[in-house]
Each structure stands twice: as C-alpha cells, then as structure tokens.
Amino acid sequence: MMNERRAWWFLGFLILLPIGCGGGSGSSGFDARALEEQAIARALREQSCIRLQATGQVICPLGAQSPANATGEVVVRAPMGAALTCVQGAADCSLVFVLDVGPLASGYSVGIAVRRPDQVRPWHVVLEPRMLVAAGQVELEAEISASEVLSEGGPVPLQVAVLLFAGPPPAVPERVGALAETGAEIVFVGAPLLPAPAGFVSESSDGSDRGSGR
C-alpha cells in the first residue's frame, strides 16, 4: 500500500512539473505560451495588468490611459495610438509609436514586437531593444515587411507589443513563440491594428480604428 501511494505521488509530480516550468521545449513551452495568451486576452479585456506567476512577467494593455493595477511598475501609454503606413508597391511598411513613458523608466530598455493576431505565426521583434533615457514622450519607428501585413485578399491585422527590459538592451531572438522568450520584464500589448495600402489606419484611444487614405 505504501509503495502504491509513493507511485501515485510520483506520477502526480511528473504531471504537475511542466506547469511550473516557465519555458523550454516540449509541453512546458506550450503551457507557458498558453498561459501568456490567456494573460494577454485578460489584460485587454479588463484593461488591467496581469502578472504571470510562473515567469514573473507583467502583461499590460497598451492604450491612452494608465492600466489598472500598475502601481510600482513602469507605465507606458500610447495617447495618439499607433500609425501603420503601407505605401502600395513598397517592400516595407512603417510603424510609428509616440509613447508616453511614466516615472521609473530610468534604467529600462524598450523594444517592439508584432504578430498576426491569429496566434499561428510567432512574434517578430521588429525594433531591437534600445535604452530609455528618461520618462516622457518617446517616438519609436520600425520597418515591417509588407508581406507580413498585406495579402492578396487585402490588409491583415497586426498586433503590437511594447517590450520593457530592466537594464541595458539585451540581445533577443528575432522571432519567438511567446513574449516571455525575449526576457522582457513588462509587456504592453495593443489591440490588433489594421493597415491599409497607400494609407494608414491608426488605433484610437478607445481601441477602435480610424482610417485615412492618401
């Protein structure tokens, strides 16, 4: 009976162990990615910051206002939204952010990652981390291949994440399945952004889209 109990305890440990791991390969990496996707969806839905216990990573919504439950953390806002401009025939599109970075930003680095919101393709780090000098307004611009946001059927939505790293800019992989793989301490994720050929659609402060042709 004692040996049987030990066998069941050991089996339970093996089943629970992958859930406690924050990354790696196999099922543990899949579990970490699933938990991150749930946190992103909840952060956008509740407009509040979510801390993942497994990794310590904080995921917040990117909007015009400060997210809830961000006390003690660096806060990033996008008061004017983001502009994603795709000129017809050009190889690259331009993503421009004017971010309002709150206090405590000193000593942090910032980068940008994008993906299609269907979660099938990995996140693409389109702006390598760079040092934040101080709090205040910071303009970030990144080039994105037009093939990532335009298809034969028309424009494709793009989800943007602002990555904050504690300390000097680290080296990060160009493509990751989960944002936790970049090592970012705090992540601000926006609602999907829809580009338009030869024009742009910018994300408004209430999360809706407004278009402008050229």
Summarize the structure.
The chain contains 3 helices and 15 strands. It has helices at residues 2-20, 27-46, 146-149, and strands at residues 50-51, 58-61, 76-77, 82-86, 92-101, 108-115, 123-131, 136-145, 150-151, 154-155, 159-166, 175-176, 186-189, 199-203, 209-213.
Structure description:
The chain is of the alpha+beta class and 214 residues long. The protein is 20% helix and 36% strand. The protein contains 3 helices and 15 strands. The strands form 3 sheets. It has a 7-stranded mixed β-sheet. The longest helix has 20 residues, at 27-46. Residues 1-27 and 198-214 have low confidence and may be disordered.
Label the structural class.
alpha+beta
Task: Give me the count of strands.
Answer: 15
Helix content: 10-25%
Widest β-sheet, arrangement of strands:
1-2-13-11-6-7-12
Distance between the termini: 77 Å
Task: Label the overall shape.
Answer: globular
| Main beta sheet strand tally, sense and closure | 7 strands, mixed
**Radius of gyration, CA atoms, in whole angstroms:** 19 Å
The helix-strand sequence is: HHEEEEEEEEHEEEEEEE
Portion in beta strands: 35-45%
- Name the poorly predicted regions: 1-27, 198-214
Average pLDDT rating: 77
Give the count of helical stretches: 3
Question: What key attributes describe this structure?
Answer:
single chain; 214 residues; alpha+beta; seven-stranded mixed sheet; six-stranded antiparallel sheet; 15 strands; 36% strand; disordered N terminus
SSE arrangement:
Layout: H1 2-20, H2 27-46, E1 50-51, E2 58-61, E3 76-77, E4 82-86, E5 92-101, E6 108-115, E7 123-131, E8 136-145, H3 146-149, E9 150-151, E10 154-155, E11 159-166, E12 175-176, E13 186-189, E14 199-203, E15 209-213
Parallel strand pairs: 2-13
Antiparallel strand pairs: 1-2, 3-5, 4-5, 4-14, 5-8, 6-7, 6-11, 7-12, 9-10, 11-13, 14-15
